[in-house]
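Q: I'm writing up a methods section and want to include an example of the input and output format. Could you take the sequence below and give the corresponding predicted structure tokens, formatted cleanly so I can copy it straight into the document?
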Amino acid sequence: MRMRSALLALTMATFGTGVLSTGTANAAPLKASITCDSASNRISTRLTGALVPNFTYTVKFTVWTGSRVTTGGAISSLPELGSSVSVPMTTGSDPNVDVAGYTRSWNAADYAYYGETVRVTVLNPNGGTVAERDASCSQDKRVTVQLRCAPEAHTVTATTAGVNFLGNRSVWTEYVYSTTSQSSADGLRFTRHNISGRPDVTHSVTVPESGQWSDTGYVHELSGDPYYYDETVTVIVRDRLSNLVVGQGTAYCVYADNRISTPTARGVTRGQAWPDMA
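A: Here is the clean output for your methods example:
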């Protein structure tokens, strides 16, 4: 199949010395962001938050990771990988800044999947790294992630489904989950996060000729009746041949919440609803 290419020209935005907010007592956490806007066909990046006041910095925005799948099925990494834009700036008496990074045009309609991560590095005048932040955005028209909380069965089940994939090709499905639990009204609340950098569960799935596939990632069995329990799952789909990401999604459900009368027993999120990540 022939690859449909989008015009991807890296352009500099107009920069000042940063937009400063008011009140140093309201210093915000430093956060990178990236937006893949299919309506305007623009990708844009920013850094917001607090730095040391009355100081000079260089803020470097780098295309860190990314991959794409055309509507015709061609898989590739982003050609802009490793390219960067550096923005000099000086803070005022207020440390809060809003710095625009790179912008790029793209044609969202050309892609069945598109994902990009920006790394924002704040450098001091000597070139030393002061801070680093990552952010990601994606568009996914093929993958659906579902998380079903079933208190009657004492289970939480994560599943992933794909459509319009190339047939007779294999993919990896990688599951990472987090939970929040509380055994009783006066008990402590615990949150479980995977910080290992590795998936909790990985499966190999062979895509049939139809291009449609599904995978049950895991089934968690819960004992007893918790006062509160919720779960979130993030799924990355990789092409086994290239190891590139070709789909992703997240889902959330509430198994038990005795603070309210009706918990959310089912959660479904399509891949294109993936939020920006700092």
